[in-house]
Model the fold of this input.
Amino acid sequence: MEPRREPFVAPEPRQCPVLPPCGDPPPMNKPHYWDHATRELALRDAVLAKLIGDYPGLHLVRRGDPFTTLARAIVGQQISVKAAQSIWDRVVKLCGNPGSAPTLDAARVVRRRIATLRGCGLSERKAEYIRDLAKHFVTARLDPATWTSLDDEALIEALVDVKGIGRWTAEMFLMFHEMRADVLPVDDIGLQRAVAIHYFDGERPTLAALRAFGEQWRPYRSVATWYLWRSLDPIPVEY
Done:
């Protein structure tokens, strides 16, 4: 299956995953690699060159601390944004620091019984997941201070050791929180759709084909993915 290099149809809106907001702390500055990455990708790929030109001044943005960000991801799984926000507010009130920039305290989560966490509206499974995540942070099985020494796959492996965190969630965390430059989330439906539209005449590639096709974007596959998402949903998602 030979890829075609020009966009041919208007893309459908992407149903981006949405997490309950975590307040308004100052966002992380533009990733240090972003400008160089966009120049390199624009030279290599005509589709990306157009998308980069269409969305000037936008880039990945990070908000929140690691534990709070991952806990929010678990709370928001498979429920509406409104429901997730309501539950999240109660969890933060019970185990965190409410306010304009709410955070969750792992030590306080660990001390809470499952039944108490369920009282916030969490399912039993999600309450167990949040507790397991908190235990990983409290015991330093997940230690953000060590993450800079880990390559992407090693960090993903550490994250998916937590109940309730799969590879896709881990990859989103690497992209949006850790600002890793070279993540290609081949399981992401939006990425699959965008690549199909822009390069394969609407035919969705297999995961193996998508992985191979993405090799041309190394070492900036996160940046390529982000711009392909923009072609489906112009409003950036923040994690």
Summary: The chain has two domains: 34-61+182-230, 66-176. Confidence is low (pLDDT under 50) at residues 4-27. The first strand starts at residue 96 and ends at 97.
